[in-house]
Automatic annotation (TrEMBL):
The gene is LOC4816287. Metal-dependent phosphatase that shows phosphatase activity against several substrates, including fructose-1-phosphate and fructose-6-phosphate. Its preference for fructose-1-phosphate, a strong glycating agent that causes DNA damage rather than a canonical yeast metabolite, suggests a damage-control function in hexose phosphate metabolism. Has also been shown to have O-methyltransferase activity that methylates glutamate residues of target proteins to form gamma-glutamyl methyl ester residues. Possibly methylates PCNA, suggesting it is involved in the DNA damage response. It catalyses: beta-D-fructose 1-phosphate + H2O = D-fructose + phosphate; beta-D-fructose 6-phosphate = dihydroxyacetone + D-glyceraldehyde 3-phosphate; L-glutamyl-[protein] + S-adenosyl-L-methionine = [protein]-L-glutamate 5-O-methyl ester + S-adenosyl-L-homocysteine. This is Sugar phosphate phosphatase. InterPro entries: ARMT-1-like_metal-bd_sf, ARMT1, ARMT1-like_metal-bd. GO terms for biological process: DNA damage response; intracellular phosphate ion homeostasis; methylation. The keyword NAD does not apply. Subfamily III proteins have a conserved RTxK motif about 40-50 residues from the C-terminus; the threonine may be replaced by serine or cysteine. Keywords: Hydrolase, Manganese, Metal-binding, Methyltransferase, Nickel, Transferase. Its EC number is 2.1.1.-, 3.1.3.-.
Length: 503
């Protein structure tokens, strides 16, 4: 999703923070991303972007104040003013590089956060000296804690309008994709197109909305739509064939249950493309169930909450376009039937830890992923947490950088928006640096990476935990579906090797 807010101008980092710990250079290899490197994207984000986001939240609260006061009375007005003052104070703490504070209120995950903060070395507990991932996550968590500790504002999502606006302005792109994805043949080409469209989705709707179709190009042709954004030009790693082969192996082996965990990223149009991919998996028997893992609180501007999923499906059901309305009804039936489920809320997704510590930090979540067949991690933030926000050698193997985190088969899909990347062919990063010095932060490049699980079929933690299935949530009132049959199509399985991809 494209951030459509202005950041404005903000004061520079306090003079007190410019000591010997800070350097004018970029983030060096084999170190954590950190704002103490002044030529890094982390520094720019903490100095300019985060204060801008906090200011936009303040402006939104002021804009919504009459409605909130009407709902909650004068006490609501006082609470809004208190939250605004807390955010202003947090901005000053950030700009002065203050220490992280412990949580002492109604935050349900405060014990986990406080334990994490206290385990950090004292000199790594300030915004610019800390790992960038820790600082960013802490800021988003603190902001929402201000609302949690009021009587009336705890459920308010100050990013909801951005996600909803993003979907509403994407009508042309949604209509084209909805038409092009009906009755797709079950083959690798269809699957690969959907994966790549999904990966590029946070910029795809802009290009598709601006695209002028030629006379011989149909809006309903998925191959045409896949070419619109020149999807392959900047795809640095494409392991989609390995994901396809893995799902095909499960079916050929007669595996009764193939559960796919999808760790969501952004809402709006991007989530729309998520659902197109997941619908394809379920329709074609490649997944018996998909579990959507969403954030527990407003997070990183546009991340998906469970409320965003319900809003999106209902928005489509009520849409005047017949095709989009039918699509919304179909997705509602899939969710009512438990084919696509929203996983139980876990605050681990809004924590600061890398994923390789999940087994120690949230064992139940780890067991759930272990009980599934494939986990797809979507977006840049999920990628950073898979990599530990660490600057690896760009040609280091993906499997190495996971540092043992392999509860099931894993796929990571992201556009590159920070200096963390791995699995590239030898010399590729240096070539890119010469031709496009900002390639790591531009979002113009992407990767789809995959690795198999370490586990054998005889041992699945999720089966032992009782978390292998989720309860069905029948949240939508829709007509009974008509009987649908799968079209029989010959499966095309490419036999590319990882080595041939690199060469």
């Amino acid at each position: 999703m494209v951030l459509r807010i202005s950041l404005g101008r903000h004061s520079r980092l306090s003079e007190k923070t410019t000591d010997s710990e800070f350097t004018e250079g970029p983030t060096p290899r084999h170190s954590l991303l950190s704002g103490r490197f002044k030529q890094s994207f982390a520094f720019l984000s903490l100095q300019e972007r985060m204060p801008g986001i906090m200011q936009q939240i303040i402006e939104l609260l002021l804009e919504c104040r009459p409605e909130l006061v009407e709902r909650f009375g004068e006490q609501g007005r006082d609470e809004i003013q208190h939250v605004i003052e807390c955010i202003e104070r947090l901005k000053r703490e950030l700009q002065r590089d203050r220490q992280f504070l412990l949580f002492h209120g109604n935050e349900p995950d405060k014990d986990a956060w406080n334990a994490f903060i206290l385990e950090l070395p004292r000199h790594k507990r300030t915004y610019f000296r800390a790992c960038w991932l820790h600082a960013e996550c802490y800021l988003y968590r603190r902001i929402y804690s201000f609302l949690e500790n009021t009587q009336h504002l705890g459920g308010f999502d100050y990013f909801a309008h951005l996600k909803q606006d993003d979907l509403q302005i994407s009508e042309r792109a949604m209509c084209a994709l909805a038409a092009a994805t009906r009755n797709l043949p079950k083959n690798y080409e269809s699957f690969s197109n959907l994966m790549r469209i999904n990966m590029w989705s946070n910029r795809y709707e802009i290009q598709l909305n601006a695209y002028i179709f030629q006379e011989d190009e149909l809006h309903s042709d998925i191959d045409v739509l896949a070419k619109v954004a020149d999807l392959d030009r900047n795809l640095l790693v494409d392991d989609s064939i390995f994901v396809w082969n893995s799902l095909m192996r499960a079916k050929l082996k007669g595996q009764r249950e193939v559960i796919v965990d999808f760790i969501c990223d952004n809402g709006g149009f991007e989530f729309f493309t998520d659902m197109l991919l997941l619908e394809f998996l379920v329709d074609n028997g490649m997944a018996t169930q998909v579990r959507l893992h969403v954030k527990a609180i407003p997070w990183y501007i546009s991340d998906v909450l469970s409320s965003d999923i319900l809003w999106t499906v209902n928005y489509l059901i009520d849409h005047p376009d017949a095709l989009l309305s039918a699509l919304g009804l179909k997705w509602a039936r899939l969710m009512n039937a438990g084919k696509i489920s929203i996983a139980p809320t876990s605050h681990f997704w809004t924590g600061p830890q890398p994923y390789f510590v999940m087994i120690d930090s949230d064992l139940e979540l780890y067991k759930m992923l272990s009980g599934g067949y494939l986990a797809i991690f979507k977006g840049d933030l999920n990628y950073r947490r898979l990599m530990g926000d660490y600057i690896w050698d760009p040609n280091e193997e993906f499997i190495t950088c996971l540092r043992g985190f392999r509860p099931c088969n894993i796929c990571a899909m992201r556009t590159v928006k920070c200096e963390v990347v791995c699995g590239l062919p030898e010399g590729k990063a240096d070539d890119l640096l010469r031709t496009d010095p900002q390639w790591m932060t531009s979002g113009n490049y992407g990767v789809i990476q995959y690795t198999d699980s370490l586990k054998c079929n005889c041992y699945q933690v999720g089966r032992l935990s009782g978390l292998f299935h989720l309860p069905i949530h029948r949240n939508f009132k829709v007509p009974e579906p008509e009987h649908e049959t799968d079209e029989s199509q010959q499966q095309r399985q490419s036999r590319k090797s990882r080595q041939s991809q690199k060469t």
